[in-house]
Amino acid sequence: GYHGVTIATASLTGLAFAHDDFDLPIARILHTDSPYYYRGAQPGESEEAFATRLAGSLEQLILREGPDTVAAFFAEPVMGAGGVIVPPATYFDRIQPILKKYEILFVVDEVICGFGRTGNMFGTQTFNLQPDIITVAKALSAGYLPISGTLVSNALYEILVTQSDKLGIFGHGYTYSSHPVPAAVALETLKIYEERDIVAAVRRVGPRLQEAIRSYSGHPLIGEARGIGLIAAVELVRDKATKERFDPKAGVAAYLVRRAQHHGVILRNMPGDIIAFCPPLIISEAEIDEMMGCFAKALADSSAMVKEKGLT
Predict the structure, then answer these.
(1) Whose CA is closest to 79, among 19, 127, 120, 46?
(2) What pLDDT digit, counting tens, does each position of 102-137 carry?
């Protein structure tokens, strides 16, 4: 997943572009297999078998390193900048018992999923996770002011309090932490989420987006259409049967995004020719239809460009 671009968080991030040219990841940060079924499954392997294999791979990594040396496991409920990767239904069911078995803390990065994106207040609820630590940001203030937070379990909190009492201080902070203005905005944002029942709104309109996205599954340029709630993506491919990607130099996804903006909608292209959709939580079904209409025009333009340049 994606966890940031400071030296430590970029090391935690499992994306090559965050490591290249920076001699990352730093020591003692390891990565395990991504629950990216479309790209990672073996021929004929079911999602259940895929999840089980990945859990086994994680356990072997822990045993090789020594369980006593592994402090925590970081994951996003749905990987955002990693390509909108929705894990198999049983992936976290397989992962969590292993973490408990070896007493490894589970840190859930809710920066993308938190505050309604997946149809629950947190992705943690959507995937039935039991984290020790949750990180939040972005939607905590609806993006109006920079603010982030770290939520900890009661058990971990008690440890921090006890040790802080012994030492006299809990030394964790930075120059702009605890800023009162973003805190006030965050409190008002949370109030609005509750008053307007934003999570229920996502549950109402989310199926419209997911149905629209999946209607493109049969398109020649689209290898997979995926998502949950109000986050989704389509993955462009040169060859649908083999899942072969376009040459990055061809710039197919970048072209599609430019054409989408020309037609009236801002989309995001990610490494691997993935087009992401992450609309405002207050979007209506009519606006989803409008957004997808703009995407349809951009996709048609891109198909014509690919054909004209002989890229398939």
Answers:
(1) 127
(2) 999 999 999 999 999 999 999 999 999 999 999 999
